[in-house]
Amino acid sequence: MAYRELKQKHRALREVFHTNLSLRTHRALSWLDRAEQSAGDLDAQFIFLWIAFNAAYATDIDEQYRSTEKGMFESFFKKLVDLDSEDRLYHLVWAEFSSSIRVLLDNQYIFQPFWDSHNGKVPEDEWKQRFQLSKRKAANALGNRDTVQVLSVVFRRIYTLRNQIIHGGSTWSSQANRSQLNDCTALLFKVIPVLIDLMMDHPEQLWGDAFYPFLADD
């Protein structure tokens, strides 16, 4: 499932959607479309796909919670997995991407405490302990086929990669991060269309106010 099919569905159903859901999916689809048009530029595809994800999931929350954005992933994915009667996300995690997910979870370069230690914010032994703990938790989630927890951990790692690129911590088309960028982009290309489709299949759910609502000109 790709942009064209999802956009046709959006056009057919948007009149019955709540304004917030219609806006979220419209924005997310626009960035998915741009990612599909950026074949050959992996960095651009990753950026556009992350914006598509953010457009779909982000909510306007109190200022005190904005520093804990990563903690929001779990509740979002739990909602989607609970609504996924065809187990599409389960299939993606366990049948299509299980190998690359294990590689991502073992990659220290997309584990934020590693960089915090490198920048002198935490001791080296602390990041290593946290990395081992994170891997044990991830291994437990993998062993239990806990789709929600695995997706949440993976997206926290993707979020670190997103920070590296968006905040200028990476060179365009650099060979230094190609492996994780390839894996993350491939995963996003499959997960994002499914989550947009699930949201459109369940307009009765409360998806929350758009973080930046559309304001018509006076």
Give an account of the 3D structure.
This protein has 218 residues and is mainly α. It has one domain. It is 66% helix and 0% strand. The chain is built from ten helices and no strands. It has helices at 3-13, 19-36, 42-57, 73-83, 88-96, 98-105, 112-118, 124-143, 147-166, 178-201. Helix 3 (42-57) runs parallel beside helix 10 (178-201). The longest helix is centred in the C-terminal third of the chain and has 24 residues, at 178-201. The radius of gyration is 18 Å and the shape is globular. It starts with a helix and ends in a 17-residue tail after the last helix. The model has no long low-confidence stretch (mean pLDDT 90).
List key phrases describing it.
218 residues, mainly alpha
Radius of gyration using CA atoms only: 18 Å
Distance between the termini: 38 Å
Total domains: 1
- Structural class based on helices, strands and sheet pairing: mainly alpha
* Count of helix runs: 10
Large-scale geometry: globular
Average residue pLDDT: 90
Helix-strand pattern, N to C?
Answer: HHHHHHHHHH
Unreliable segments of 5+ consecutive residues: none
Helix fraction, binned, reads 55-70%
The count of DSSP E runs of length 2 or more, i.e. the number of strands, is 0
Name the beta content range: under 5%
Please give the largest β-sheet.
none
